[in-house]
Amino acid sequence: MSTKSVDVVLIGGGIMSATLGTMIKQLQPDWSILIFEQLSEVGQESSNPWNNAGTGHAALAELNYMPEAPDGSLETSRAVNINEQFQVSRQFWSSLVKEGVLPDPTSFINPTPHMTFVRGEDNVDYLRRRYELLKNEPLFEGIEFSDDPKVIYKWAPLLMRQRQKGEKIAATRIETGTDVDFGSLTHQLIDYLVANGAELHTESEVKKLKKQKDGSWNVVTRDRVGNTPHTYNAKFVFVGAGGHALPLLQKAHIPEIKGFGGFPISGQFFRTDNPAVVAQHQAKVYGKAAVGAPPMSVPHLDTRVVDGQASLLFGPYAGFSPKFLKSSSWLDLPASIRLHNIGPMLAVARDNVDLMKYLIGELLASKKKKLEALQEFMPTAKAEDWYLITAGQRVQVMKKDPKRGGVLQFGTEVITAADGSIAGLLGASPGASTAVPIMIDLVKRCFPQQYPEWEKKLGKLIPSFGTKLNENKRQAEKAIESTAKVLELERG
Q1: Residue 414 is part of a domain; what is its CATH number?
Q2: What pLDDT was estimated at residue 2?
Q3: Does this model's pTM top 0.90?
Q4: Does residue 487 lie in a domain region?
Q5: I want to staple 379 with a disulfide (CB 3.0 to 4.6 A). Which of 100, 162, 182, 240 is the partner?
Q6: What is the pLDDT of residue 105?
Q7: CA 126 to CA 131: how far, in whole Å?
């Protein structure tokens, strides 16, 4: 059987592979690209709009990006950094809109105010102090704070109707937030790649990754229909398979994956499509996470726009499943255990008892209990208007730590082989929203010979490339305004 040779193999048909493939096609149009997706179409796991919050994470409302230190102090650097990264993604998408790669920006991104909403005197004090710091940051210009129920009612009436009088509450709002359909974006980017010579193989599962003497990789796949095996040879392999990235990188036997494990967390959302309810809420409203809850479990009441149709989501309600993908095996977690990662995994279990208790409580919660959590946000919520949907799986990174033996990391991490011939992405949040800067870092690490030439092209695709927008107020305003115009985010 002959082995087809290509420049790049992308494993997984989600937003990460779509972003990297599009970036490479823009930077090096003559390179050949193969994409493998084990499902019947792309963008059906974490990139699917009903499997994620679709926020366009910019730290405008997500309080976990600006936690309170033990001494009560607050620090803005992480929130600013997340926002910087999202602005890079926006600029990249804007360039693709101008090129016609993404012909209709409203099909994947829409203007949606981002809000926070907290209850209780301590939380109100925290939110006020957060606002006082962020209002001076150029990328957060326009942020508003209020503890006046009448003002908050104007911003988001569903938060205030039938709320108990005298309750200590506060909210912030910034109108430049967005709602992003990463499923639609993924489809459009991969359509562009296929139209420009890339090959897409759906229902094709990668079974083996074997490095060759010349530094290339043999990628062995098997058709899910017909069970036919195939072998391809690639100069570079990217593993963008969501939760399944860990076992695939383990199959590659690269030293860099040693010590890494995965902690899968499942979840559910309440969803309503009732036009009478949906019409009363136009915002993404984030609250504060419960004690012991993982950051991706911060409660939020979100406007979602999918295929032009608006809905509301509330959640997520976290749970546990040993699967690494919604469509994968119940044996994923035990099958990922190795001698080199069992120590860090046990250390994580020892140090995260509160998280375990929280997940067990979520698993045991009845639908009535879940509705009560929604009613804390929206007192008028009625059971007949809402139904539960299952969210995507999130596999958090567990890795070695010199002090504690192992740590659970709520973020994303790029694993790259020493020679740059293979790389993969582990983790979840903020994930898709920062896909573009993540992939810029990846190509810099994996293609050091080509990167100096590519920098010029990246500068054209991303006007702020190599600078920090937040350090220059005028530049920040210009970047936000110009991308808003191209992406049709301007408000009348």
Answers
A1: 3.50.50.60
A2: 65
A3: yes
A4: no
A5: 162
A6: 96
A7: 9
